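Dig into these lines:

——
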Amino acid sequence: MQNELKDMQERYSEISLKFAEVEGARQQLVMMVLNVGSRRVQAGVFLSRLHVSQFPTSRFMAVISFAG
């Protein structure tokens, strides 16, 4: 009975450690996605404030391509 309890405790510890690792990776991914989304929103706001008349067509298209 004590051996079974010890095995269960070891298994629980392994599972807890794995969960912590996966949760850490998940949080990093969430932060990365939020950061990318924020950059796209900022780029969209920047581009929405530009006027086509400010740039020759080729430069304006290069700005759009770079931001996308």
In short: Residues 2-67 form one domain. Residues 62-68 have pLDDT under 50 and may be disordered.
